């Protein structure tokens, strides 16, 4: 279940906190999906905008830039690494684990996550918008 509340006290054993951008429709959709797959309710989903102060060790800029998973006091996983850890804790995602831990996958995962994070507020249909000037010119020529 998606919970929008203040950051709880110390992270309980086996309980994870996931800080995400609650102003981003794409992010909220991903959280709804992952929350529905979290059969044991291991993750507490927290839009960082609901916090009075950032978690110790993080800044508002950190939270604006990426999702963070807290698995213990000040034990944070950012972006791709948060998703990789979530795959270990959300049972239906477990089949992805061998792939996510293959040598070299982290470089691809970091790059894909960075692109999605940069464009997350523009994602509507699940595809990333093209942003190069050439592509914009090509689109303008095609459209009229």
Characterise the protein shown here.
With 144 residues, the chain is of the alpha+beta class. The protein has one domain (16-143). It is 41% helix and 11% strand. It has 6 helices and 4 strands. It has helices spanning 25-37, 60-65, 80-89, 97-100, 105-119, 133-143, and strands at residues 16-20, 43-47, 68-70, 76-78. It has a 4-stranded mixed sheet, covered by helices on one side. A hairpin with a 5-residue loop joins strand 3 and strand 4. It is globular, with a radius of gyration of 17 Å.
Which structural class do you get from the secondary structure elements?
alpha+beta
Major sheet: arrangement of strands: 2-1-3-4
Please write the string of helix (H) and strand (E) elements. Answer: EHEHEEHHHH
Approximate strand percentage: 5-15%
Supply the number of helical segments.
6
Distance from N terminus to C terminus (CA atoms, Å) equals 46 Å
| Overall domain count | 1
- Residues in helix, %: 40-55%
**Major β-sheet annotation:** 4 strands, mixed
Number of E strands = 4
């Amino acid at each position: 279940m998606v919970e929008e509340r203040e950051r709880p006290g110390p992270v309980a054993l086996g309980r994870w906190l996931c800080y995400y951008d609650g102003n981003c429709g794409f992010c909220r959709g991903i959280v709804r999906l992952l929350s529905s797959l979290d059969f044991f309710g291991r993750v507490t989903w927290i839009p960082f905008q609901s916090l009075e102060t950032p978690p110790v060790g993080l800044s508002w800029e950190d939270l604006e830039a990426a999702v963070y998973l807290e698995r213990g006091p000040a034990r944070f996983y950012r972006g791709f690494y948060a998703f990789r850890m979530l795959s270990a804790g959300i049972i239906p995602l477990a089949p992805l684990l061998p792939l996510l831990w293959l040598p070299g996958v982290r470089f691809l995962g970091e790059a894909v996550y960075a692109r999605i994070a940069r464009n997350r507020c523009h994602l509507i249909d699940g595809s990333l918008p093209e942003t190069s000037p050439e592509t914009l010119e090509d689109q303008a020529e095609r459209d009229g």
